[in-house]
Structure prediction request, 286 residues.
Amino acid sequence: MDPSLVILDGPVGTELARRGVPTPLPLWSATAIETAPDVLAAVHRAHSEAGATVHTANTFRTAPYSLAKAGREADAPQLTARAIAIARGAVFPGHRIAGCLAPLEDCYSPHRSPPPPVAERAHTAMARLLADGGCDLILCETFPHPGEALIAVRAAVATGLPVWLALTPGPTGDLLGDDAIVACARSAIAAGAAAVLVNCGRPARLTTAIGALHSAGVPTGGYGNVGEPCSQQGWRSEGDSAPAAYAEAVAGWIHLGARIVGGCCGTTPEHIAALARLSSEGPPGP
Prediction:
């Protein structure tokens, strides 16, 4: 196995929906922490068995800022810690748990990002909950707004835990251009992030961003969406060949210098297993 390649898990939200668990707004996947903890654990376990070694806890919407929309701000510490514990208990010993620090508003709506003072207070509070909850690293995940992304990175770095940032160009690839991604990545690395990834976009779009990040000397990787948007599940994969096709795209990222790879919306444990096979085969040749 290539020891320098890290396999991330796949998504929680669309996988819960695929398994029949409702994920209504505003709490989205966080609802399952209380309503379907066994299914949530099964999702984490399936990704572990598929070959992922870093698992993102279901904390995307357990921040006080998010829970306040449901009148449950006070439940943030308990739900965050419970999400981390569910992940920890489901995966193989020695695997790492990433606490997810998400944008405060919709991932595809950078214009809705709160003013910096609000974002600083909110991300600082959530980063502390993640650290107190016992995660191994913090993943600032699916940020479309460079300013808010850097606020989140600084808050996460202040906990003393390793920090990864994942930026999203969005479903049509135009929320962030490659120049903006590289500029934000350089600032994030200067602020203490260990790696900058791209996620939650189509694989072909992520390819150009990963190439640009590697050329800029940024430790990088990615995890993309597959299939098409779906009103019931958010995204759905298409056909039995989807895992192989996705793995082929990810092999291209590895050739471009990606060292951290996984799956985002619409991918399944079968997609992660296909990536783990890439890892066991070593990086592709020229």
Notes: The chain is about 45% helix and 15% strand. The longest helix spans residues 116-132.
